Amino acid sequence: xxxxxxxxxxxxxxxxxxxxxxxxxxxxxxxxxxxxxxxxxxxxxxxxxxxxxxxxxxxxxxxxxxxxxxxxxxxxxxxxxxxxxxxxxxxxxxxxxxxxxxxxxxxxxxxxxxxxxxxxxxxxxxxxxxxxxxxxxxxxxxxxxxxxxxxxxxxxxxxxxxxxxxxxxxxxxxxxxxxxxxxxxxxxxxxxxxxxxxxxxxxxxxxxxxxxxxxxxxxxxxxxxxxxxxxxxxxxxxxxxxxxxxxxxxxxxxxxxxxxxxxxxxxxxxxxxxxxxxxxxxxxxxxxxxx
Length: 291
Prior knowledge:
Elements: H1 13-26, H2 32-44, H3 48-53, H4 61-75, H5 80-84, E1 86-89, E2 92-95, H6 108-117, E3 126-130, H7 136-144, E4 149-154, H8 157-169, E5 176-180, E6 191-196, H9 211-216, H10 230-242, E7 243-252, H11 258-267, E8 271-277, E9 283-289
């Protein structure tokens, strides 16, 4: 069925939104109208609500050209978050870039699990985020624990630098430090709470992922080796050294990985305490407790 003609005047906000929505739908983008609004609001430096209040307002020529360029990139399945440069996570707005995995709502289950495992919000926790990316998990925790201090580690220096910018912009830089390294190899201290969203996708499965992920997000944040468990083996082996007595580690899981990761934890003397599901019902956040 052909799309209906756009009703608003040519060159207006409504006209651009109508055309962009149709083009994104044709490119198999799941939420074409929503994404059209987000892209145009980003280009015009306004809100989606403001666009809807005045759909007949004209779009300046330079902004129309910028919008057309971003629209073409989105139609080629470049992630929307990379195009607009930020994404919401927990209660935070985070800068993102192709140096980092885009934080997803599923990972908020790790924050929920950590808060449940460490209920004293006034505790001066020492927090570690392994594979920090944008700093999402660490910064979410620091926003909840006002006396906590945390370290975020990423294998990519550009990711660690981006996480530091997010901490600065959110007013959390005084309680956070970020470094580039090989997991926790450079760290000697012990931590009350460790969070990690490691790469857990089987290498052979990566080409079959949606184009936004397979073509654009960093392979180092996705590839978990032949069985998807390579990073878990490395991290879990190091947890007894890193966790304070009765400390907690919260690990993000891929679908179907709970039993295998729990088995690795048992070998290291760690106790699986809980596993929190994400909004889709998938066991996502595994809580391990040190002796």
